Amino acid sequence: MHRLVVDCYACQHLRYIAKGRSLAAHLTGLAAAIEHPSEPQLLDTLQRWISRTGNIPMPSVPDARGDVTIADVIPAAPEDHAATVRGWAQSVWIAWREHHELARKWIAAARG
Where do the H-state alpha helices sit in the chain? Predict the structure, then answer.
């Protein structure tokens, strides 16, 4: 859950995704959590790919990056935390829909 929180937050705040590599790391982390939840090892594969990949061109960033924010997650009761974070992740992922194929391309590159 912690990694998903970091990826969601970063994908909603420009200062954490100002460069292509940063965006690639967080957007692929989000994609991995949503589209490949049964592959926790994918995060390690993605991190290795990011660390060995040089320049990653920066795509455009959507103006709206999700209707759910960290402000919606913080007050959630402990028993609701995971579901609230997953809802936040869905909201952010939907907001980045124009870049889903790019995230999938990056994941494929990481897998080699």
Answer: 2-12, 20-35, 42-52, 70-73, 81-95, 100-111
